[in-house]
Amino acid sequence: MTACKQNDVPQYSAYAHSNTPAHVTAAGAAWLASAAAYPRSTLSLWETRPTDPCVLPCGSTFDVVSVPAVFGRRMLDRLWADGPGSGPVATHRGRMLLFTCPGTAHRLPSLLTWEEWGRTGDTAGGGAKGAVPPPVLCHGSGDAVTVPPLSEPAAPAGAGPRWLVAPDVRHPWLPGPEAMLWACVRAARPSQTAKARISIFPPAEQGANVYDVSRRR
Fold this sequence. Notes:
Elements: E1 3-4, H1 26-33, H2 39-48, E2 54-57, E3 63-68, H3 69-81, E4 89-92, E5 95-100, H4 104-114, E6 137-139, E7 144-147, E8 162-165, E9 174-175, H5 177-188, H6 190-195
Antiparallel strand pairs: 1-9, 2-7, 3-5, 3-6, 4-5, 4-8
C-alpha cells in the first residue's frame, strides 16, 4: 500500500471522536508552510495572525482528498481501526479534508473508476442496493485548499475550518492513493464491515506465542 515514507508510521497516537479542535505544533506549521511559495512569509503571517485560515497550494508537499464529513468519519474509522492510520485531517464547509501524498489526486480517480465508484447499486461488491457513494474530490497540482488556523479562534464550533487531526511533526506520514481507495471502499459498505472486520494487516496465527519485546535492546 503506497504511502509517503517520510516516517515509517503515523505520528498521531490516536484518532479521537472528539469535537475539540486539534492544535498545530511549530513543527507542523513549518511543514504546512513548506507548501507555500514563500514559506518564511507564511510563517511570519501566522505568527501575527494565528487564528486566520490560509490558502495553500497542493501538489508539492501534499495532496488533499475531500469527502462529505459523515463519510469522512467512516473512512477515518476504517483507517484507524484496520488500516495504517491517517495523516493530518481538517474539516471545512461540511466536508472532510484528508491530507495525502503528492500524486494521490492524480492516481486516486483512476482507482475509483476501476471500482465503478459512483454507480448506483452494489459498489465494490458490498454497498447497499440503490445506494450511491458520495463524490470524492481530489486536489493536486494546480489546486489550492483552505487550511484551518493554527490556533482555534474564539468563534462558535463549526463556524469555520478546523483541524481534526493536526500536523505535529516536520515530516508527517501521509497515506497514498491505495490507502484512500481502501478506506473509501470500506466506508461505502459499513453494514458489511460491522459484521466482518476486514484488515489490511494479516491476522495473528492461532495459538502462536506472543512476546513483549518492547524492552529488548
